[in-house]
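USER: Write out one fold?

ASSISTANT:
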Amino acid sequence: MKSRIWMLLGALVLLGLSYAYFFTEWVRTEPIRIQAQVREVVGQRGIEGPQRTRREGNRRRNAAETSMQQFEGVYPVVFALDGEYRLTSVRVVESQPAKGAKAPKILWNLVSTSNSVPTKALMYGRVPRGMVPKEARTPAGTLEADTEYRLEVEAGRYRGSVLFQTKPKPPPVEPGG
């Protein structure tokens, strides 16, 4: 009789452990799913939005111009996350190291200062609130057309990554020609 009880208890514990492993995030966390979108921006107005005051408008315009410098010759890239996350680390690297290089080049590397704001989307080059560049005052590197990159994000114990490729902008059309 006692051996049956121990076998049933053992089976119950085994079922409980298998449930915890396969159906919960206690042991294994789901990765953060990220969607990379290459966006065509229509002029500065589409970036900065409505202006409230002259000073605030100038600050927004300068921030927009600074963040758009990474996109000379390519369209901007926006990343959509599958939920709201308090990011602790954001990194963009080349997916393949350049010829002669041992490691892929890191173009953008951010870390959380203390407690970042929950976010559902990122734009390459724009620093989310609560995060700073890992090396002080290091802006995001310039993206090159038709080059594959990898975005890696961390939010505590949750991690995710996605490969993306930039698209070249067409050359500007000369007026009257």
Q: What stands out?
A: The helical segments are 2-23, 45-48, 54-68. Confidence is low (pLDDT under 50) at residues 44-52, 59-66. Residues 31-165 form one domain.
